[in-house]
Amino acid sequence: MAKMYYEQDCDINVLNGKKIAIVGYGSQGHAHAQNLRDSGCDVIVGLRKGNSWNKAEADGFTVMSVADATKAADIIMMLVNDERAADIYKESVAPNLSAGKAVAFAHGFNIRYQQIVPPADVDVFMAAPKGPGHTVRSQYVAGKGVPCLVAVEQNASGRALEIALAYIAGIGGARAGIMETTMHDETETDLFGEQTVLCGGVVDLMQCGFEVLCEAGYAPENAYFECIHEMKLIIDLINKGGVAAMNYSISDTAEFGPHDVVKANMRAVLSDIQDGTFAGRWIAENKNGRTFFNSKRAQLAKHPMEIIGRELRENMLWKDSQSGDKGLDSASN
What we know:
It is built from 15 helices and nine strands. By secondary structure, the chain is α/β, with parallel strands linked by helices.
């Protein structure tokens, strides 16, 4: 059983006298900064000039360049996109680190694949909410929290875990529960979950189902409702009470149908994550102009599944409660 921590295990006073720099003010960045400030912590924001700088200032924060924030802070939390973090770290963070500081992350990608290698005299830890930033913020405001993962990669001070737990308490995660892991395991399981189930897997499953029904001559509107719209209803049931709760709520006919057809492909995806093949592809994609990534995104925007979905949502009474928030999962600054 993984080690769990809660509010009684965290002493937020450990952060007293420490200045925390939040690098990035996207989804996670704004939530961490505001929650920590509301918890009584001393927070500054490190950014490049641009819209996020203006937004962070409007929200009442002292905003500095990443280099200046790193110099001023005791704890530096990197909350920029994975593909940008290594360059920002090398240019603006690494030259300004000194012994006794801490560098923190909300995802282990750059540590796991050695794109970022901090010096031996700083603490390195992970404080990873298991939810998008808008939820980290809204749950905190409601007096609740989002469950978090904690990991210590480097314990130069001898107190890295205490500092990490205090930080997570500051963003509200201790209210829900904190699970101890490693940055290695978090990275591999997170990438695997995103690719095979949560993001790539679910989208591919819905898209393939939509295409099979349409190719068989069924109305695309029917295909959308059966393969896409109802997905949220099913996931909500599972999230609330597990698969058993979902099975209780559906017909026996629906329950009779599943087959194990994807596990072999999932194992291949995991192997690519474990041996660095995926990370190498993603790093190279970003260095080479993101041609493949951008073309796939453009293709999806033109897919009938997306076009029909937009048309249906615009004509349904439930559309106002289904509105999205562009960039909720972006950690960019």
